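CHAIN AND CONFORMATION:

***
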Amino acid sequence: MRVFLTGATGFIGSHIIPELLDAGHEVLGLTRSDAGARQLEAAGVDVHRGDLERPDTLASGAAAADAVIHCAFDHNFETFFDNTKKDERNIAAIGAELEGTQKPILITSGIGIGTPLNGGLATEDILNPRHANPRIATELAGTALIARRIDVRTIRLPQVHDKVKAGLITPLIAEARRAGAVAYLGERECRWAAAHVSDVAKLYVLALEKGEPGARYHASVEEGVSARAIAEAIGRGTGLPVRSISAEEVELYLGWMAPFAGLDMIGASTWTRERLGWNPTGADLLSDLAAIDYSMTAAD
């Protein structure tokens, strides 16, 4: 299968590429830069020029492939709402190209979108169209395509990590350095689901090869790691003090990340594992946080 991969030069996309190639697929990778093109060519990937600001370039990539894995997203959280709308437009553009074909598209969302209305463990069967997280726009865009009989499969991501990056935890480290302490909200238990990037990459390929139209798959390996344990791991790595803070102090210590402080983002993947035969083997989050080179995170 020839697979058009957006986000091909990114953290997750660059790990999906070898999994696709090892499974015998061809890859057409999206990039907007010469450096990205060189990276893709070195990885054995065909290059498709374009970017997220031009939906037509994503549509033309879809036209040149047998399937689409869309994992690109603008991670500038200062414009998070606008970025979700941009993702919505890009999914719609790809969908318009796929309509009337049997080509599948895998879209990427967040584990929290599957959280029940009264809170608790996120599961694959739940989709709350009024979810407060603006990332719901991605799944609503996918739902619109499903209504047009397009084969949409959704991958919901937790905190994806290795020994270099760790989802929202990487910018959390930067905020801790700015504030002079690693903080967590002590007034309630907050946990974040997590998965090693190698396991996440394998899941995308399994969902491509074995997935079902309209299905949602959870990439969570650990259902929830406590915010306190995460903060303590960062504290050991950076040498910064660890502080339990109140809701009134959250913005002071966490800056733009304040809205995430009180979120209990836990998620199960039992159904996903059973349906796809997904067997994660990567390191756990706290092990990777213990192994991260914190001098490099300071340089970032």
